[in-house]
Amino acid sequence: MAVVEGFIQVPSVVTLLGAVLVFLVLYLLSSIHNKGKEPPGPRPLPLIGNLLQLDFKKLHLSLFQLSQKYGQVFTIHFGSRKCVVLAGFKTVREALANFPEEFGQRAKLPIFQDLANGHGILFANGDSWKEMRRFALTSLRDFGMGKQQMEEKIIEELHYVTDLFENFKGKPFDITKGLTYSMSNIISSIIFGSRFDYTDPQFQEMVKTSNRSTLLLGSPGVQLYNAFPSLSWVFKDRKDLMESFRCNLFQIKRLISKLQETFNAEDRRGFVDSFLIQQQKIPSQRNSAHYHNENLLISVANLFLAGTDTTATTLRWGLLFMAKYPHIQDRVQEELDMVTGGRQTRVEDRKNLPYTDAVIHEIQRLANIVPLNALNVTRSDVVFRGYHIKKGTTVIPLLTSVLYDESEWETPHTFNPGHFLDDQGRFRKRDAFLPFSAGRRACPGESMARMELFLFFTSLLQKFRFTPPPGVTESDLDLAPVVGLILNPSPHKLCAVNRA
């Protein structure tokens, strides 16, 4: 009888355990159902994830193509790192505008930690980021952003770059250095309180290393390093980037030291002086702990990089498009001549130059210079569009999918100023125009960049006609971009022919 009881007790225990397991499974399924299922995506392989399905030389296009198959919210694995991609204008805007806290934290990618270690503005989070961003915005406004004071600085710099272009006397040349130096000088006047001569070797080296860092940040090797950080020694791009960034920081430190030697709290020359003043304030002051030398150094590097490369690159695309599409250049110059009569354009002229304004907007849209946006991470679990996205998930708001959204743009892959004109030829705003991103992480220098683009583009087209080199036709001009954190035009030369 005891033996029989023993056999009876065993299945009873198994049954009990089975019931508990069934209950737990049902509970978990119910919990997932209540929160929403996870976004779909291609099945990842062990260790490497979906790397074999991605082209790291055209990562934004790979992700864009995957969105056509898996939808506007989908999952992709970079090695063991799970990422959620947000595609399409409505999806990206909804996430960044309606869920600013959940999607508004910068992803802690290995390369960002290596470069900034949580300091500065671009790759930081938390209270330090909030304070540095607030302080940077205040300083930019104090030194003229969005005001006539800034307009005068831009026009002053225009004289230097115009002289540089004239020196080539209509012969082919690479416009990159002139535009990059001029943009660097505008942001430098805000950061350091003065501009540099284009021939200054220290200035040239600082611009060169900054540009190289931007290019390497988006390189395949650095993207693979972010997926496999334990293999840092394998990736040459990562090593080169660290060396380039160290050189850039050394150059910036040297400039800051010179400003410290001549510092006068009663005479603020730029952002650095404003920061030094904050450092002098009593330690008990709120947020004083954030004003340390590392935040100063990385913030200056961030502002210099962001204030140089993005606008200069957009202008390079703009002049390339004008050489590529001479009939559009003709219409811009006709409108400029009619409205300004040859005088220096001013920001207030924008409202009377609808076609020119539309062309500038279309340059920004089609150039798509920051295609992946900046990667964010979820601060908490979030249910978005019926999908459950876990805390700590890397999020990619794919700007390419916004600026090329076929449901928003009539001819998304064609240079078409008509995207920004109504039936009467008046300028019209488009909600899907988000080259500066949106939400709490939108570009803090947007108003300054818009002013720079307008004044430089209109002034240069008043003065010059941009054409391909002799023997090169418009159709020969290559619009394929160079891969980097920012999409640059392929190396090319143009002729700047004086219109006088």
Layout of strands and helices, then pairs:
Blueprint: H1 2-35, H2 59-70, E1 73-78, E2 81-86, H3 89-98, H4 100-103, E3 105-106, H5 110-116, H6 126-142, H7 148-166, H8 176-191, H9 201-217, H10 220-227, H11 236-261, H12 271-280, H13 293-324, H14 326-340, H15 354-367, E4 376-377, E5 382-384, E6 387-389, E7 394-397, H16 399-403, H17 446-463, E8 464-467, E9 481-482, E10 488-489, E11 495-498
Parallel strand pairs: 2-7
Antiparallel strand pairs: 1-2, 3-4, 4-7, 5-6, 8-11, 9-10
Helix pairs in contact: 7-8, 7-17, 8-13, 9-11, 9-13, 10-11, 11-13, 13-14, 13-15, 13-17
Summarize the structure.
The chain is of the alpha+beta class and 500 residues long.
Describe, in plain words, how this protein is organized in 3D.
With 500 residues, the protein is α+β, with helices and mostly antiparallel strands. Helices cover 53% and strands 8% of the residues. Helix 9 packs across helix 13 and helix 11 crosses helix 13.
Straight-line N-to-C gap: 114 Å
Strand arrangement, major sheet: 1-2-7-4-3
Instruction: Give the low-confidence spans.
Output: 1-20, 22-35
Largest sheet: 5 strands, mixed
What number is the mean pLDDT? 89
Amount of helix: 40-55%
Per DSSP, the total helix count is: 17
H/E series: HHEEHHEHHHHHHHHHHHEEEEHHEEEE
Beta-strand fraction estimate: 5-15%
What is the C-alpha radius of gyration, as a whole number of Å? Answer: 26 Å
Structural class: alpha+beta
